[in-house]
Amino acid sequence: MTLTEVTRANPPLVPPGTLIGRELRSGKIEKPVIGYGQAALAKKGEDYFLIKPDCQRIPGNPSTWFSVFAIFDGHNGISAAIFAKENLLSNVLSAIPKDASREEWLQKLPRALVAGFVKTDIEFQQKGETSGTTVTFVVIDGWTVTVASVGDSRCILDTQGGVVSLLTVDHRLEENVEERERVTASGGEVGRLNIFGGNEVEQLVSHPFSSSSFLQPKMFEDSISIMVLGCNLLCVFQVGPLRCWPGGLCLSRSIGDTDVGEFIVPVPHVKQVKLSDTGGRLIIASDGIWDALSSDAAAKACQGLPADLAARLVVKEALRSRGLKDDTTCLVVDIIPSVHPILPPTPRKQHNVLSSLFGKISNSTGKSPNKLFAVGAVEELFEEGSAMLAERLGKDFLVDRDSGLFRCAICQVDQPANDGLSINSGPFFSPSSKPWEGPFLCANCRKKKDAMEGKRPFQPTISI
Ligand SMILES: [Zn+2]
């Protein structure tokens, strides 16, 4: 098996805005340089990624540049992954007022990410297709990194000082107790796949391994059950990871998945951190990497290497550890001080980078080779993972003074007040209720919110 790149990694790039927008404020560098690389191995061809290093907060003003990197790990088809790749960024940006200052923009970004994820999910479901996708969506503006994620494609941060932290939360039913409780409370069932059989019982009982530790009860206590029905012995194997039913998905959050319960929600976990001006490295990857490598192992495997080579080495390490069992995609993003960029050392054999990388250097990656980086503190600005939109969208709402129309906090469509409801309003208006406390949702988005919380079924209106 050989490593094949799906897309050749790009060299580190300095967005044009850097040259114009580089400022010194109180002696501190305003914006870092972004270097990045990407590598992938396809098994099913359902992983997609987005690299946009040169977005502009104010169109036409290059000093307002920011970068977006994302991974979309599709399942049951590719359409949800492609749709999210093409629409999510614009849906997020549409939820932030155009006249926001940079500080306001960063402050509103976590809420806009929630709105953008939900809007994208509603729009995809209107297409009537059934595939789904994880999303890990990273926005880098200066030293501030904001990560929004649904599913199990992780993003880790290596501050190059030996500290590796996880910026995402895995929405896997197997590992996330809170999500299991939420799904169950919203009307879903959580369990393993049942496989029925009769003959298998005799084989188990008479199997030479049956008296060994291979079949000790502790190993099977939650994965197998045997029922006696009349004279027939029916064996029910419960296999694989925990899934939710209907649908049988292992994930509790995703975009798409029209054919599973509405308790599979598109509301992302969002974390926003500010790096010190020594910078850091992000590794964003699909579960093909994380099922093979721990966060620390992935970070250590590529420390000291430029981002493009680092991405290839992480994929190579995952392949060596577990084989190619799933689509495997990795983005490595370096956030580097721009005045005195400290670039990692370059491999010696420039003429044969790959053989050098995978042979010689991989043997020496166990320790950090770069001692030039100081240990930088990471300031945590924001973290929220609740699936409840009332907790995620805040209490502001926009009313157009001229038209009197209210703007939906999710889809951003202006509607008359009586065509929608405040998120906090109950089913009946009472003197004690505060119907307009909280963001306004149009009728369709309100239905979606209620369906996600198990209050009623949601049938998306199919677009023509
Ligand atoms: Zn709406």
Automatic annotation (TrEMBL):
GO molecular function: protein serine/threonine phosphatase activity
Pfam families, A to Z: PP2C (PF00481)
Matches recorded under CDD domains: PP2Cc (cd00143)
The PPM-type phosphatase domain, residue ranges: 25-335
Chain segments annotated as coiled-coil in the UniProt record: none
Superkingdom classification of source: Eukaryota
Entries under Gene3D superfamilies matching the protein: PPM-type phosphatase domain (3.60.40.10)
InterPro entries: PP2C, PPM-type-like_dom_sf, PPM-type_phosphatase-like_dom
PANTHER family: PROTEIN PHOSPHATASE (PTHR47992)
Designated name of the protein: PPM-type phosphatase domain-containing protein
